[in-house]
Structure formats: C-alpha cells, structure tokens
Write a structure and sequence with these properties.
Elements: E1 4-5, H1 11-25, H2 33-45, E2 49-53, E3 57-65, E4 72-81, H3 86-99, E5 103-105, H4 116-124
Parallel strand pairs: 4-5
Antiparallel strand pairs: 1-2, 2-3, 3-4
Length: 136
C-alpha cells in the first residue's frame, strides 16, 4: 500500500471517505461535500498543510501554534482508512510534521468508540489522551 500526496483528482474520493468517517464514528457534524472539497484543496496548496492518500485512506492536517505557546503542532484534521493503511498514513504524517519541527496532535472519535487496536497502536507510538472535545 503506497502513501502519497493527494492531487486534485483524489478530492471526490476524499470527500467520500470523510462521509464514511462520519458514519463510522457516528459524528455529530454532517459533512458538507463542497466545504470538504474546498478545505482539501486549500490544504493541498498550503505550505503549512498536507493531504496524504492511500488506496483506501487519507490523512489531512495543518501546522500552527496554539494560543499558549509558539510551539508548532501538526493538527490532524481528518484521518480514515478502510484498507488497513491507517498507521502508514500516520507515519507519513508524523514524518512531514517532524520535517517542519512540529509535534503531532491527533483527533479521534469518542474514547468509547476508538477501537482498542488503534488505542494500543497510538500508545506504542508515544501518544496519550490530552484534551476532550465537547459538542452541543
């Protein structure tokens, strides 16, 4: 399974995967396909953004600092793989972040919906839960 930078021709497939991601985690926000496509295109054209794809997966993110520190973080904005390429995508995202001097910040679904296999893989890679997002 090869991981590569996304190109414009990948956008419709990424939109479909974002919709599949929402369904997989019972997400509270309904994807707007036009907004997803626009955001992916912006990330692909930004020096601080990235979108990577595999045959059946993607990961997208951007680098910025936080309000409390100038430390740089690569914020994962979407990550989904239906082809078991999830860790390959993550490794490529981590390498991109590292090459830009940024730490990685991942978002996952609700803790009770994150598969044990993924939780274990993230712990092995040095990740730990940090913040909880609340949506009304």
């Amino acid at each position: 399974m090869a991981v590569r930078l996304a190109v414009a021709a990948d956008i419709p497939r990424i939109v479909d995967m974002v919709c599949a991601l929402r369904a997989a985690i019972s997400g509270p926000v309904v994807p707007e396909p036009a907004k997803v496509a626009e955001t992916v295109m912006i990330l692909m054209g930004s020096p601080s953004g990235i979108v990577l794809v595999s045959d059946g997966g993607f990961i997208a993110g951007s680098i910025s600092s936080t309000i409390i520190s100038s430390e740089r973080f690569a914020h994962e904005l979407g990550w989904f793989a239906a082809d078991n390429s999830g860790l390959q995508l993550l490794r490529a995202f981590e390498a991109w972040a590292d090459s830009r001097g940024a730490r990685v910040r991942l978002s996952t679904g609700p803790e009770d919906q994150v598969p044990a296999r993924l939780r274990e893989a993230l712990h092995r890679r040095g990740y730990r839960p940090y913040e909880t997002a609340w949506v009304k």
